Amino acid sequence: MNTNTLTCCLIAAAIGQLIIAILGPIILHSMNWKEPLARSPLLMREVFHVHTFFIALTCAIFGVITWRFAADIAQPSHELIRWFAAAIGIFWGIRCVMQWTVYSTSHWRGLFGRTVAHWTLFLGYGAFAITYLVTALRK
Q: Residue 120: how many CA atoms within 13 Å on its side-chain side?
């Protein structure tokens, strides 16, 4: 993959991560989780909200840094950049695997919209992982 293509892929990944960062906290309302969460123990609600916030923050940090330094990341001149790209690639690779191993198929199988969302997320997370891992492994 040439540097220009990789830079474009990194910018696309940055945009995707920023979208996830924005949508993450909104998902509580769109998935109608407010009432079930209200029935949960206080600590569980607090952990849910803190984790939702920090995942959104992590995605925002990944997105902003990638957006700002896409060209530098695409041509890593320092070992730190390779490690950074590898870390993000591993993060998204694990998330991609978890899309299949943690969530029950009962949440989406047979439901067209949810099946599309499931596959879109899986393919998107996989694209993020591949983009960053290719970058990390470039010589």
A: 9
| Side chain identity, residue 127 | A
Closest C-alpha to 70, from 119, 1, 130, 10: 10
Q: What is the DSSP letter of 79?
A: H
Q: 29-78 pLDDT, tens per residue?
A: 777 788 888 999 999 999 998 998 999 999 999 999 999 999 999 998 89
By residue count, the chain amounts to 139
Q: Is the pLDDT assigned to residue 1 strictly greater than 90?
A: no
Query: Is pLDDT at 128 greater than 80 in this prediction?
Result: yes
Strand (E) or helix (H) holding 5: helix 3-30
**C-alpha angle 95-97-101 in degrees, rounded to nearest 5:** 110
**Residue 70 burial (CB count, 10 A):** 19
